[in-house]
Every structure is written in C-alpha cells, then in structure tokens.
Amino acid sequence: MATFVEKQITLDLSSAGLGFSIIGGTDEPLEDGSTAIAVSNVLARGAAFGAGLQVQDRIVAVDGISFRNVTHSFAVETIKVAIPNRVIRLVVERPTKLDGVSAEKLEELTGTRTNDAKKAFATRDAELSRLAHDLASAPETHMKGSGQYIKAAVFGGLDGIITTFAVVASVTGANLSTGVVIIMGFANLLADGLSMGMGEYLSALSEHQYIVAERQREEWEFSNHPQGEVEEMVELYKEQGFSEEDARAIMTIMAKHQEFFIDHMMVQELGLMPPDEDESPAKNGLVMFLAFICFGLVPLLSYLAFSTVDFGDNDSDALFGIACGLTATALFALGAIKSRFSTQTWWFSGLTVLLNGSLAAGAAFLIGYLLEQTVDTDN
Fold first, then answer.
1. Residues 317-321: what's their mean pLDDT?
2. CB atoms within 10 A of CB 122
3. Element holding 254 (H helix, E strand)
4. 20 has which bridge partners?
5. Are 104 and 129 in contact (CB under 8 A)?
6. How many other CB atoms sit within 10 Å of the CB of residue 208?
7. Which band of pLDDT confidence, cut at 50, 70 and 90, is reported for residue 141?
8. CA 376 → CA 90, 168, 176, 379, distances in Å?
9. Rounded to two decimals, what is the model's pTM?
10. Using CA of residue 174, residue 179, residue 185, residue 190, what is the dihedral sign?
11. Range ranked top by mean pLDDT from 164-173, 174-183, 207-216, 368-377
C-alpha cells in the first residue's frame, strides 16, 4: 500500500501557462480504483513544473476547495475558474517510499529540497539526501539572478574594509593627526572604490564578450559541419573513458538538440560556461563599488563619530581602538556571511577573514611606525 506525504504547492501563472493535466474522479476512477484526482502529465515549460508538481501527485484541494470525492469535470472546472487569479494554491498528496524511515528522520526535513540537500551534504547523511529528493515539493534550485553578484559583493567588501583599515593603521602607526587619518582614509576609499568597480566591470565585460564570441563560432561550425562537431565530442568522451559506441550514441542523441549540444560542447571542449543572458557587467561593477564603499567606511566611523569627543591625552589611541573593534566585528561578520556560499563553518570563515585583515593591518601599522622613526615627518 502506497504511503503519501502532503505538500503545498503554489503555481505562479504570471509568466507561464498552467502546464499539467489530471485524471481520476468519482466518475473516472484511477487504475487502482481510487477516486482521487491525480496529475497525469507535467509540461516542462509550465508553471506546474517550475513549482515542483509531479506526475502521480494527488490533488487534495485547489485554493481551499476540497478535491476529495469529486467528479473529474468538477475538478477541471474548478481549476479553470482559478486560472484568471494568476496564482493557484494546491494541496497535494505525493506517493513516497518510506519503508524503514524513522519519524525522527522525517522531522529533519524542512520541505525545501535545496535546504535539505545542503543539510544532508554538510552532515554526510545519505538517507536525508534521498528523502530530500524524494519528498520535497519543489525542485532543487541553485544560485541565479542576484546570486551572480555575491562574488563581487564579498570581494569588494573584504578589499574595502581591509585596505581602508590598513591606511588608518599605517597613519596611526606613523603618529599622524586625526585629520590626516580622515583625509587619507577617504581619499583611498574613493579612489580604490572607483578603481575596483571599474576593474570588475571591464573584466566581466571582457569575459562575457569572449564567451559570446566563442559560442557564436561554435554555432557557425555546427551549422556548417555538424558531423565534425559530433566527432570532436566523441573523441572527448573517449578520452574520459567512454567506449566509442557509447560516446557516439550519446552525441547522436544530443546533437538533435542544437542549443544544448553547443552549450555542452563549450563546457567540455573549451572549459567555458554558456553565456548568461541575465548577467550584467555594469551591475557587477556597481556592486563591487558599493560593497567597497560601504564596508570601507567602517574603519573611519570612529573618527567621524567621535573625533569631537575628548578622550584626554589618548585621543588618537582611543579612536584607533574603536576603529579596531568596529573593523574586527565587520570582518568577522563578512566572513560568516561568506560561509553561506562555501563549505566552511560560519565561525571558521569569520575567524579566517578576521585573521587576514589583522595581518594586513598589523603590517601596515608596523610599516607606518618604522617610517615614522626613520623619516622626518615634520618636514
């Protein structure tokens, strides 16, 4: 007897059609005699596919209307009435294989495949990984869209806070005035921020243009001599250990889908990921610049906020101490955030970034101190 797990699925029809069909009902029972309304087909480009609806899912309710013991025609009409709303909320029961699975293990599931898969990998829990793929209501997702800017944001933030604090530390080590710290800090912040942002924009633009040019070349070659491109891929697969028969069978099928074949060929032959139409070099540069400026301001906050406060004879040391505390906190926080996109634990990633910043600042402070001892700063 099949076991079912209840799932809630939301269909967004704003940019895609419904994309599924149903069978069953009290007037058209399923093969097992059940009168449930079941999903019989899911189209790849429909809203149902994107939301994770699967064939054999049994629809329990649509927008709060029960589908238990209803006719097939009632189910069809109810779904049609819901379509103009552009958002349809389904409650479904999904058949699962739960033999030998404990209740405690089921409670570990969050219901989101990506989160469950990450948790399973982090703990090396094979059973949880299987359940994440078998039971989750939505397909596993990977970073797209805003995710492409994470690298620029993290790198820009780290570079901004470390380089600015290094300037602050070197000026403090040279025993220069608070005004000099602020002037040099802001000069470095703006100049380096512009340089980093423009550099990120130009590098991302060049990389994108190169990838697009290579793909256009591969498209032209495939259009003019498809068999030659297939032969190239067969040879690459043979180098990976495939037999010629298997490699040729795979490539013959794959070549029927030109866009996919060319994208796959770029990865395997050229080592290039297919161009992302949503990627914007200008946004990459802007994210880099803003991250650099925002995090680079942190070491200067103490000088801006407390420069008028009287700390007695230790004004410079007090302001530098506050800057150290703010910078250390920001470095650790940025490292912890970075861990979300790596396999490191948050505390280890935070400490690593903090150590990196500390070494850079320590070196800058030492250089400033040594130069102050050997150079006549008064002249």
1. 87
2. 11
3. helix 244-254
4. 42
5. no
6. 16
7. very low
8. 77, 20, 12, 6
9. 0.63
10. negative
11. 207-216
Q: What mean pLDDT is predicted for residues 90-112?
A: 68
d(CA 274, CA 55): 31
Token pair listed for 315: 């004004």
Indicate whether 135 pLDDT > 80. Answer: no
Which of 24, 92, 38 has its CA nearest to residue 62?
92
> Could you tell me if 137 and 49 are in contact, meaning their C-beta atoms sit under 8 angstroms apart?
no
- Name the 3-class secondary structure at 177: coil
Query: What share of the chain in percent tops pLDDT 70?
Result: 88
Radius of gyration of the chain (CA): 30
CA-based torsion, 174, 180, 184, 189: positive or negative:
positive
CA dist., res. 233 & res. 248, Å (int): 9
Q: 16, 45 in Cβ contact below 8 A?
A: yes
Q: Give the three-class secondary structure for 59.
A: strand
Does residue 98 sit in helix, strand or coil?
coil
Nearest to 10 by CA among 82, 69, 76: 82
Q: Which amino acid is at 20?
A: F
Beta bridge pairs of residue 4: 95
For residue 225, the SS3 value is coil
Q: How far apart are CA 220 and CA 214, in angstroms?
A: 10
